[in-house]
Structures are given as C-alpha cells and as structure tokens.
Amino acid sequence: MDQTWTWFTDKLAARGISLSEEQLNQFEAYYRLLVEWNEKMNLTGITEREAVYEKHFYDSISLAFYTNMNEAESIADIGSGAGFPSLPIKICFPHLKVTIVDSLNKRISFLRHVVQELGLTDVNCLHGRAEDVARLSEHRDRYDLVTARAVARLNVLNEFCLPFVVKGGIFAAMKGGDPTEELQEAAVSLRELKGKLLRVESMTLPFELSERHIVLIAKTDSTPRKYPRKAGTPLKQPIL
C-alpha cells in the first residue's frame, strides 16, 4: 500500500470508516478517469493524485463524519460536477441509493462512465436543472439526505435542495469558510422552504489545513407548492 492509500485509509479508519481493497481500487480508478476526462473537459483544477485524495475524496467523505450514512437509504447530490461528494460516499457506503443532478450533459456523461467502470449500482445520473427535477413527483420530498458542495450561497441552495428532502430528512450544505453570514442571509428561505438549522460542523483538511464547514438542516414539512420557482429564478432573485 502506497503512502497516499496509507494516510487515506488510516484517517478514515479513525472516523470508523473501513475500506476494502476493492473500494481502494475503485477510488484509484475514479482518480484515473477524472484525470483522463479532465484533459478534454473542465472537471477540476485539482489533478495531482495526493491533492485529489485529500481535497476531493476525503473532503467528500467528511459528510459521513457528521451524518449517519448507515441510517440513510437514499441520497441526492445537487450540482454534483465531477461527482463530489456523492460518488466517494457511494464507494464507502454501497447500500445507498444515489441520485445525481447536474445541468451540464457532458458532466453527466462522465459520471455515467465512472459509475459503469467502477461497477457501482443504484446510481441515477440525471441531466437537468434542480428547479425542474424537483418538480417531478419521483424526486420531490423523497430523499433521506440531500447535499450540495460549493454550488451557490445558502439562500439559493435552500431552494435548489430542500424540495428534494423528505419530511424529517436532512439537507447538508458543504461549505468552505465560515457560513455565519450566509445563514443570516438564508433565514427567510429556510422558513419558506420548511427547513430548520440543526447545527454547523467544522473541520480542517488533514494536510492542507483549509477550513471546511457542513451546514445541517432538517426538513420540517413538505415543500410548499410554489417552490422551487422556475429554472434560473432562484439565482437571479434569491429569497430574502
């Protein structure tokens, strides 16, 4: 086992997450595909192996440090980009039924290829705008856990993501810096979209030591009929 795999498995084991050789091979295949496809489309600015394992894989899996993945059955990842955080979480917790929503079809093609190459099951990669997909009955108020990583400010994210969450489920917004200002700004959207702040968790990446915050929001009731508004409106006219 090389140095990267050693720290990766040790750090995760310390959090109660153990990886098999098959799972490590899946992460390595994911890394290779990310670099290969990144040469023809813009997936990430981070391609050095050690950095991908820390800033993409470990960072994505950190969501499982603060939520109980073993109690969740379904997860939706909104604006997933290159598959973060949902695919690293799926590799670690194969029982999860994962839905990925992204508005760029090229990224969805990449994600479907990764899912096929890694032999992952129960992963649905959907091309579409979050506002449109959340209007479909099979996705509205359906998911135990919904997440988004570095997509938009929280008052916009709430409208993108909370409509997907089942009553009693959790929306986890993965942020970099301190989200205090965003939370204040998002107070009205939380109330409108039937969300209630549970807590904010924070950590630092193990080597780069940059800050990460996870905003955990409970869904208290079904999504009001008028939300989400039509595609593009939440970004142009956030709920304030």
Task: Give the neighbour order of strands across the main sheet.
Answer: 3-2-1-4-5-7-6
What is the averaged pLDDT score?
97
Helical coverage, percent range: 25-40%
Q: State the major sheet.
A: 7 strands, mixed
Q: How far is the first residue's CA from the last residue's CA?
A: 51 Å
Q: Please state the overall shape, judged from the principal axes of the Cα atoms.
A: globular
Uncertain runs:
none
Rounded radius of gyration (Å): 17 Å
Number of strands: 7
**Beta-strand level of the residues, as a percent range?**
15-25%
Based on secondary structure, the structural category is: alpha/beta
Order of helices and strands: HHHHEHEHEHEHEHHEEH
User: Tally the helices: what do you get?
Assistant: 11
Describe the structure.
The chain has about 240 residues and is an alpha/beta fold. Helix content is about 40%, strand content about 20%. It is built from eleven helices and seven strands. It has helices at about 5-15, 20-40, 50-60, 65, 85-90, 105-120, 130-135, 155-160, 180-185, 185-190, 235; strands at about 75-80, 95-100, 125, 145-150, 165-175, 195-205, 210-220. A seven-stranded mixed sheet has the order 3-2-1-4-5-7-6, with helices on both faces. α2 (about 20-40) packs antiparallel against α6 (about 105-120) and α3 (about 50-60) packs across α5 (about 85-90). The longest helix has 18 residues, at about 20-40. The model has no long low-confidence stretch (mean pLDDT about 95).
Question: What's this, in brief?
Answer:
The chain is 40% helix and 22% strand. With 240 residues, it is α/β, with parallel strands linked by helices.
